[in-house]
Amino acid sequence: MARRTHVSKWINDTTFYDIALRMETTEGALVINPIIGPEPVSGSSRMKGGSATKVILDTVFYLASCNNVMKASEVIEMYRTAVGTMEIEGQDIATVVEQAGECLLNNASIRYVGSSTFGIWGMIDASECVPTYNSSYNEIRGFMA
């Protein structure tokens, strides 16, 4: 199903079809093709349906970093577990979001404080609030412990 459309600046007028054929015979090649319904795969995580893109990139980079110790299906199962947990904790998450909104409405601020991966997530979320929601630098900030 790959297109034979030439991609500008690819060497020798290579098409995605050419790459797909090469990957069929390359040991260790990985293709992740999500079935995502109405949410498109996009180039941004900010309010543009980028969660499918994030799942794809996280899966590929995680598998690359662990030298194929885990299978792609195991990584996807970890995501399913995380989504299931989010569904279970949905009301508590909604409460925290409402409290954060109240803080901003009352001229208070939101601070993310975390370490390791969780700290990085907080930093990324805080950094995206300025361009996405036009928040000020002092309204929402992230800190790494």
UniProtKB/TrEMBL annotation:
Q: What is the lineage of its organism?
A: Eukaryota, Metazoa, Spiralia, Gnathifera, Rotifera
Q: Tell me the Gene Ontology biological-process terms attached to this UniProt entry.
A: glucose homeostasis; response to fructose
Cellular component aspect of the GO annotation: cytosol; nucleoplasm
PANTHER family, per the entry: GLUCOKINASE REGULATORY PROTEIN
Query: What InterPro entries would the database entry show?
Result: GKRP_SIS_2, Glucokinase_regulatory_CS, MURQ/GCKR
User: Where is each Glucokinase regulatory protein second SIS domain found?
Assistant: 91-144
Query: Its Gene Ontology molecular function terms?
Result: carbohydrate binding; enzyme binding; enzyme inhibitor activity; fructose-6-phosphate binding
Which positions make up the signal peptide? none
**Name under which the protein is recorded:** Glucokinase regulatory protein second SIS domain-containing protein
Task: State the PROSITE patterns in the record.
Answer: GCKR (PS01272)
